[in-house]
Amino acid sequence: MPETSPRPEYGAEYDAEYDYVIVGAGSAGCLLANRLSANPAHRVLLVEAGGKDDWFWIKVPVGYLYTIANPRTDWCFTTEPDPGLAGRSIIYARGRVIGGCSSINAMIHMRGQASDYQQWAQATGDDRWLWGGPDRPGQTLAIYKELENYFGGADDWHGSAGEIRVERPRVRWKILDAWQDAAAQWGIAPIEEFNRGDNSGSAYFHVNQKRGRRWSMADAFLHPVAHRPNLTVYTKTQALGLLLDDQVSDNQRRGAWTTARHRASGVRLLKGGQIATVRARREVLLSAGAIGSPHLMQVSGLGPADLLTRHQVPVAVDLPGVGENLQDHLQLRTVYRIRGARTVNTLYRNWITRAGMGLQYLLLRSGPLTMPPSTLGAFAKSDPALSSPDLEWHVQPLSLPKFGDPLHPYGAITPSVCNLRPTSRGHVRMADADPLAHPRILCNYLSTDADREIAVRGLRMTRQIMASPALARYRPEEMLPGPDLQSDDDLQAAARELGTTIFHPVGTCAMGAFDTHGVPRSATTVLDTDCRVFRVAGLRVIDASAMPTITSGNTNAPVMLIAERAARSILG
């Protein structure tokens, strides 16, 4: 059916054929649109299911309180009831707006650790994923530096000429400084920052902000090039399915496409209530995220054959790994009541201080309204024998029963601890053949003995930090999980009741190694190291889905690493 809806917000008039069609204007999609449209000979279409990112609360950092679980900016997914969460179903926010998750996320700039990329290199057989540095193999640190516009200028660890703005937080809290001192007394030393390859220590998080405003990946990569006549952006346009041709030319059979049986030739779209078809002369690039990308592949006939057959979707290519291998960070939110220090709870109770917070932001772009969800962080090892930290704390100067609920009526802090290397694996699976139906998401949190043991250690270590002398003057009182819970069984039960996502889903179309015949070495492998889909020429998945294993901390920066490397591969 022909396109009859109004002209899109950016770029050229509607054309049914482009060189590259990018599905998803999230973090990766914005970078890809920037890089691929830099050559004026390339016609690029970027498709976004959500709307524009011009809403006030997207730009104000604390606006995540209004953008998450809001259908204006969020897909509003919920998980299946999870045995690891005592049967609970939880909100699973994913950005549905220009900028994607970078328009609603925590803004924390976290690269992960060198050990994370060693795992990626082993999984893919590609040493370019290694951290690298002077006289060491690997490209990861160098690419991060090239992408950054760091507040401190260029140095051995950072770059200043890139698009991703990285700044210090613009507010500090006396109670968080005390928590950092307490962590030091327990053995977690203060450090300058977390992005140097080994995150051991405690520091205030660096953030993706510019002068007190959220700096999304749309701000970094898309808006500056929106004027390019060869770049078209469709908003409020949902991808319904991939177009697959049986004809694959010899020059398309390379890398993961050596054994290609089909070629991705375009995408079927729903725009303005009508169905349109767009063709891709070169490639289709899926950047719809760890939930959206595998779901679109499944409804298009690319995925586990038994799942597709069950929902009467013709099997184009049996790809068992599509939607499997879901990994996420489960945070265990402990709450401690404190006295004698300001917290967001105490400030928010008084309308005068609330007004002062707003005025401080409007005049100075500083204060609590510039806060990310978590301000102070700490990394440590659950076992001294480990080579790098496997636990992270996000410490908030506030508390509430759960996201979306009112703050507690007393001063409190929330030290949340999470296992950075969970061994539990979940999945994303189509609910039926309707591409507009939300998929089923099951995280399977705490489904392994190792994850349950580390959860208990994390809760005990949190108690030890809170009992350190540096916090004694604030008389911390454990409210959650509660001091009566002492046994391992009690704390495991508490972890199931308190645990919730930090919104870091990855791995559902994982990169992996291939043998000399172009066949994946693992059943969970969907992509090669350049994000090309096995047996489907002209198709890549470039987003958090591609991670073979989850990184240590927030996942937005690693997604940008993947996108930059993939863009170079496409153009190279």
From TrEMBL:
Keywords assigned: FAD, Flavoprotein
Glucose-methanol-choline oxidoreductase N-terminal domain location: 289-303
Residues annotated to bind FAD: V97
UniProt cross-references to InterPro entries, sorted A to Z: FAD/NAD-bd_sf, GMC_OxRdtase, GMC_OxRdtase_N, GMC_OxRtase_C
Domain of life: Bacteria
An MF annotation (GO) of this entry: flavin adenine dinucleotide binding
Pfam family, one: GMC_oxred_N
Necessary cofactors: FAD
Signal sequence coordinates: none
Cited Gene3D superfamilies: FAD/NAD(P)-binding domain (3.50.50.60), Glucose Oxidase, domain 3 (3.30.560.10)
Coiled coil: none
Similarity-based family: Belongs to the GMC oxidoreductase family.
Protein name (Swiss-Prot/TrEMBL): Choline dehydrogenase [Candidatus Pelagibacter sp.]
UniProt source species: Mycolicibacterium parafortuitum
Lineage, uppermost ranks: Bacteria, Bacillati, Actinomycetota, Actinomycetes, Mycobacteriales
